[in-house]
Model the fold of this input.
Amino acid sequence: MYTYEKKEKQGFLKIKISKENWDKAVNEVYEKTKSKFTVQGFRKGKAPKKVIEQVYGDTVFFDDAFENVINEEYNKFLTENKEVVPASYPHVEMNSFTVDAGIEATLVFDLMPEIELGKLDNLTSKRKEVVISDEQVLEELKKEQEKHARFVEEDKECENGDFATIDFVGSVDGVKFDGGSAQDYRLELGSHTFIEGFEEQVVGMKKGQQKDINVVFPENYGAENLKGKPAVFAVTVKKVEKKVLPEIDDKFVADTTEFETLDEYKKSIKENLKKVEEEKAERDYEVAIVDEIVDRCNVDIPYSMVQHEVEHVVQDFEHRLSHQGMKMEDYLSYIGKDIETFKKEREIDAEKNIKTRLVLQKIISKNNIVATSEELDAKLAQYASNYGMDVEEFKKSLSPNDYAFFENNIVMTKLLDFIKSKNK
Done:
């Protein structure tokens, strides 16, 4: 038995469990768990309920029975009142409990916020006009030129831009440190790969020359034991190579690409750059119009939802760190923050994420934007073709989550097309 009342942004569900139903719940827990208890004089699972309560305490079955009856009534309430959508797990307050009268408890939970949609048209966000400059084309040509560079060994002093193959051994206060030594390391001078001052002192050395290089580790260096410490690197130059770039001309293009002339190649580069930049401009435009629509909407997000979202963000971040071989505790130590500060800093983004999801779901629902079976079949056929698979075999390989992914992809594409159609 229950009664429900809404107060502002919260729901209050008062539940009353009769003595009969309470006794039934306790007996069900006893039957389910009695084999776990050891009572002298009884085989496991054979001790009467009252005996177990005498040995383990009157409330030995209370917590499980209470959780069961509360969850049962709560789920019954949600099934019978689908218009009530909780935004948080309920907080349970015990009102009364007596052997004769049973239990009375109140469940308090935040309610999913109501969303007031703003206008979807007359947005101020605009799609960026894409113009590809000659400088951008030249940059791409230089990248291709770098790929085909030759390295010629020369008997000369190292200069910036040269590649020096070196052996080095680093030490602090005369003691070698982990990661401070290497052999046959190929260093591009002027690349600032090493500590400040290291490469500058290699400049001027020749093949076969040895030299002690003195540097100081920066205060913000990653290894705690090296921060701010002066170090000495014993360096031996084993090879000096000069990078030689090919001329960018018709011959280079004909030898390295599918094109015959430099002009044809430049035209192709420009077309490809424009395609990539237009796709990026479209994505940026979509993000901008969604942000503008969300900003026009009134949504008061309960703090419990923000906290839940932050926990999800932190778990996801921790999972990604683990793939890099790092623990959350080590990362926090490295950035000098505790977990509570880390979570607090993510609350603004978490609230924006929630608001965006709720607003988009409201637009989808209000305008009946769905993925039809024909659209889903076409999408699956496209993917099957991309993987060179028969579409029916491809479908058999999909899980329910895969189907949900494809359906969501279709819905989101139709949603963005719908919004953009109102803002031509």
In short: The mean pLDDT is 93.
